[in-house]
Amino acid sequence: MNQTLRDAAQRLAPVSDTPRLDAELLMAHALGVERQAVLLDPSRFDVPAEFATLVGRRLMHEPVAYIVGYRDFWTIRLQVGPGMLIPRPDSETLIEAAIDHFGTGGPKRILDLGTGPGTLLLAALAQWPEAHGLGIDESEKAVTYAEDNAVDLEMDERVRFRVGDWALGLDGQFDLILCNPPYIADSEALMPDVAGHEPAGALFAGADGLDDYRRIIPDLPRLLAPGGLAALEIGHTQHILVRELAETAGFKVACRQDLGGRDRALLLTRA
C-alpha cells in the first residue's frame, strides 16, 4: 500500500501541488474509508482495482473534489460536483474574521451572496447554532447542491436558498453578509484543473475582475444591520481597488490576510 501511494504521488507530481495528499484521498475513496484510516494502518488494506482509474482521472486534471464528490471546509463536509466552485481553504479567512467580529454571541441573521454549494453560509451556521441564514446564487444547480448539503448537515430548518441575481430584489437586514464573488480578470490564465472544470461564471468578472464588486457593494448599506459585518473575499492584488468601492459606499474597511500572508478578505462595517 505505501509503495502504491508513493508511486501514485510521483505520477501525480506534474499535475498537482499536493500529489501525496491527492493519492491518499483517492485511495481512501476507492476503499470507501476516511483518509485517516489509510494513514493509521495502510497494511490492513489491499489496493482496490478502482484506484488506478481514479489516478488516471486526476492525471487528466480532473479536480480531486469532483472525483471523490466532496470537499471539507471549516468544520463541515460539503458535497460538490461538476459545475460547482470548489471550496478553498483561503475562503475560511472570512469565517475567521466573522468570529473575531462577533465572538461567541454570533450573528442572528446571515446572508451569503453567491453561495455555491452553501460553503460560507453552512460553515457560519455550524459555528453559530442559533443563527439562521439565506443563500443566493444565480445557478439552480448550485442551489440544489446547497439545499442537499443543508439536509446532510441537519441545518435545513435554519437556512433557505434561492436563485437570484446578487441582492436584486432582496429586502431586510442581516448581521453578517458573506460573499465570495467572481474576481478573476477575463484575460488571466488559470491552472488546467480550474480552467477546464470549474464554472467560468463563478470565476471571471470582466476586464479587471471587479465587475461583480461594482454591483454588490452599492447594495450592502441597505442590507447590513447596525453593528454588523460584511466580509468580501478578494483577489490578493485587489485590496486598494475594492476598498475604494467600499469607502465610496460609506463603509469603514479593514483587510484580513489568509494563512499565506496574502490579502484575502475586506471587512466592511458601518462608518
Question: Can you walk through the features of this model?
Answer:
The chain is an alpha/beta fold and 271 residues long. The chain has 2 domains: 2-60, Helicase, Ruva Protein, domain 3, CATH 1.10.8; 85-270, Rossmann fold (3-Layer(aba) Sandwich), CATH 3.40.50.150. It contains 12 helices and 9 strands. It has a 7-stranded mixed beta sheet, sandwiched between helices. It is globular. The protein starts with a helix and ends with a strand. 41% of the residues are buried. The model has no long low-confidence stretch (mean pLDDT 96).
Write the CATH homologous superfamily of the largest domain: Vaccinia Virus protein VP39
Structural class, from secondary structure content? alpha/beta
pLDDT average, as an integer? 96
CATH hierarchy class name of the largest domain:
Alpha Beta
CATH topology type of the largest domain: Rossmann fold
Give the strand tally.
9
How many separate domains make up the residues? Answer: 2
Order of helices and strands: HHHHHEEHEHEHEEHHHEHEE
Unreliable stretches (pLDDT < 50, length at least 5) are: none
The 3D shape can be described as globular
CATH architecture of the largest domain: 3-Layer(aba) Sandwich
How many alpha or pi helices?
Answer: 12
